[in-house]
Amino acid sequence: MRNFVLVFSFAAASLVSPFVLAQEICHDRPGGQFADMRHCVTSVRAPQGATSFGPEHLAATGDGAWCASAERNPSVTLHLKPASLLRTVTFTNGYAKSSETFRQNGRVKSAVIETNTGYQGYIDPKDTTAAQQFIIAKGQYVWVRLKILQSTRGNPNPNVCLSEFLVNLEELGAR
To answer: Considering only 18-27, 28-37, 43-52, 154-163, which range has the smallest mean pLDDT?
Structure first.
């Protein structure tokens, strides 16, 4: 019986979330109109005084931003529970608090959008503080990931930042 419990525990642990990357830092947003959301990132820049740079800033609810550490090819994954029907990803490049803050921090130059269904689409976002929309294949998704391939260095902060990474769950009714 003891061996059965141990084997069952390992099996259950492997099924919990097979799409979460090994060292991700996550922030949960439960209670959404269409789905619970969870933003996970592969790295976070260290806080500067009272300013933090974690994944909690990716929902565009304030004037903050997620900024990666010096990691090569950082990524952001948005998990949706339950799986949701969508086709539009919204993305605000850089630290869009002000034009000065935008220039001082790194921005995405090229990236790939991936999903749990195997979709991959390469994007070259504009170097602007305006929100940008990218159309992906219409489908039911459990997660959508933005993997940064190249970035524009900021001065003095070279680390890449994003002010928003969301999906439009309202355009298709999400279910």
So the answer is: 18-27
- Eight-state DSSP code of residue 54: S
**Which residues, other chains included, contact 47 with Cβ-Cβ below 8 Å and sequence gap of 6+?**
53
Q: Does a cis peptide bond (omega within 30 degrees of 0) precede residue 47? A: no
DSSP code per residue over 92-131: EES-TTSHHHHHHEEEEEEEEEEETTS-EEEE---SSSSE
DSSP 56: G
Radius of gyration of the chain (CA): 17
With beta carbons less than 8 A apart as the criterion, state whether 43 and 67 touch: no
pTM confidence score: 0.84
Please compute, for residue 90, the number of CA atoms within 13 A of its CA located in the half-sphere on the CB side: 14
Q: CA 52, CA 65: separation in Å to the nearest integer? A: 8
And the tokens for 87? 């086709």
Mean pLDDT of 9-17: 37
Q: Which of 87, 169, 91, 175 lies closest to 136 in space, CA to CA?
A: 87
3-state secondary structure of 110: strand
| CA angle (33 as vertex; 122, 121 as ends), nearest 5 | 5
Q: What is the DSSP letter of 160?
A: E
Domains and CATH numbers, the chain: 18-167 (2.60.120.260)
145/120 Cα distance (integer angstroms): 9
